[in-house]
């Protein structure tokens, strides 16, 4: 004699009392929300982000020589590996005067990297670099750079980081400078600025 197989019933649930049930105490009972009728004559408000006045579609009128270039941590490190002088290579790329800008959080990131990146720190403290103060908490530079570029469209972002590039490509009118084949190149720069397109 074999054991009889017990077949489980599919999707059987324990029955629970609804929180709106009359048998539950008044204080534990869920109150039924009363829906307010919308007034059809009332003016409907919706918040639309204001577009910057400097943009003419993808064309950014605020960009022009001298170019202000926001430098990322890894851009300095890759420039050292490629044996490139930052300011000179930027000027060779854009054929104009360039002012490299470095934020406090990028400086903080380089300082955190320690003794191995002391050359990068020395380059970042160069007097030709413009220091930009940060008001936010923490030293995560990517968020800071994206926020700064969204607010002020006068910067070119110099980075090698794929994730940061992906985020900046979504912001219209912001060119990206990157390193390839031991030289600086620029991505998404209109021809009218006199800079080469690659």
TrEMBL record:
Answer yes or no on keyword rRNA processing.
Answer: yes
Start and end residues of each PIN domain: 67-166
- Coiled-coil residues are none
Q: Which GO terms describe its biological process?
A: ribosomal small subunit biogenesis; rRNA processing
| Keyword Transferase applies | no
Domain of life of the organism in this record?
Eukaryota
What CDD domains is this protein classified in? PIN_Fcf1-like (cd09864)
Which coarse location class applies to the principal site listed for this UniProt protein? nucleus
Give compartment(s).
Answer: Nucleus, Nucleolus
The record's family statement is: Belongs to the UTP23/FCF1 family. FCF1 subfamily.
- What does the UniProt record say this protein does? Part of the small subunit (SSU) processome, first precursor of the small eukaryotic ribosomal subunit. During the assembly of the SSU processome in the nucleolus, many ribosome biogenesis factors, an RNA chaperone and ribosomal proteins associate with the nascent pre-rRNA and work in concert to generate RNA folding, modifications, rearrangements and cleavage as well as targeted degradation of pre-ribosomal RNA by the RNA exosome.
Describe, as the record does, how this protein assembles with itself and its partners: Part of the small subunit (SSU) processome, composed of more than 70 proteins and the RNA chaperone small nucleolar RNA (snoRNA) U3.
Q: What is this protein called?
A: rRNA-processing protein FCF1 homolog
- Species whose genome carries this gene: Bucorvus abyssinicus
Q: Which gene encodes it?
A: Fcf1
């Amino acid at each position: 004699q074999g054991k009889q197989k017990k077949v489980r019933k599919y999707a059987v649930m324990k029955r629970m009392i609804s929180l709106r049930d009359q048998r539950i105490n008044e204080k534990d009972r869920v109150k039924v929300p009363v829906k307010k009728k919308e007034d059809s004559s009332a003016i409907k408000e919706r918040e639309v982000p204001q577009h910057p006045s400097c943009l003419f579609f993808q064309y950014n009128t605020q960009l022009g020589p001298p170019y202000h270039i926001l430098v990322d941590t890894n851009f300095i490190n890759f420039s050292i590996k490629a044996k490139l002088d930052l300011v000179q290579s930027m000027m060779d790329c854009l054929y104009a005067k360039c002012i490299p800008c470095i934020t406090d959080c990028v400086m903080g990131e380089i300082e955190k990297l320690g003794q191995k990146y002391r050359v990068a720190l020395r380059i970042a403290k160069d007097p030709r670099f413009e220091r930009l103060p940060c008001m936010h908490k923490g030293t995560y530079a990517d968020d800071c750079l994206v926020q700064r570029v969204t607010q002020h469209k006068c910067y070119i972002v110099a980075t090698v980081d794929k994730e940061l590039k992906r985020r900046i490509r979504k912001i219209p009118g912001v060119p990206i400078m990157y390193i390839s084949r031991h030289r600086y190149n620029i991505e998404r720069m209109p021809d009218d600025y006199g800079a080469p397109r690659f």
